[in-house]
Amino acid sequence: MAAPGLSLLLGLAADRLLGEPRRHHPLVYFGHWAQWLEQRLNPPSVTRSDVAGRAAGVLALLLAVVPLLWLSVWLLHALPGWAAALLSLAGLYAALGLRSLGDHARAIAEPLAAADLPAARVAVAQVVSRDCSTLDQTGIARAATESVLENGADAVFASLFWFALAGLPGVLLHRLVNTLDAMWGYRNQRFVDFGWAAARLDDVLGWLPARLTAATYWLLAPAGNRPQVWRCWQQQGRVWGSPNAGPVMAAGAAALGVTLGGPAQYHGRVSERPLLGAGPAPQAATLAAAMTLVQRGAWLWALLWWLAGAVR
Question: Which range of residues forms the domain containing residue 173?
Answer without folding.
Answer: 4-206+299-311
